[in-house]
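Quick one: structure for this chain?
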Amino acid sequence: MLSQNLHIDKIGAGLSLLCLVHCMATAFMVGLLPLFAMIGDFHTWLLVPLIPVAGIAIYDAVCVHKRIMIALFILGGIILISIACLVFHGSAYELPGMITGSVLLVTGHYLNHRSCRHCKVPTP
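Got it. Here's what it folds into:
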């Protein structure tokens, strides 16, 4: 089970990095807007896998590793990304919220991954 948790954190960090790269590359993606219009709102679709992966990572951080700070990083990232995506979509606050949330998510997943690697307790 520990092996699966390591993979979840890698997936979570990868999704968070994908979001961060997407936000940072916005200026270069302006020319591709018609393509993104065909698949719908990228940010909203990105929330679909982010939330369950983050939930598993939060469970590991709190229940297995007893590391509340890691869970707060991940939860804070999800909250910021969700607010930026759903409340501030299209406003000047969307990009800073998405970038800050992505950095928090990447940090939380990295710390959780590091905790899993050093953990000697098998996960349930």
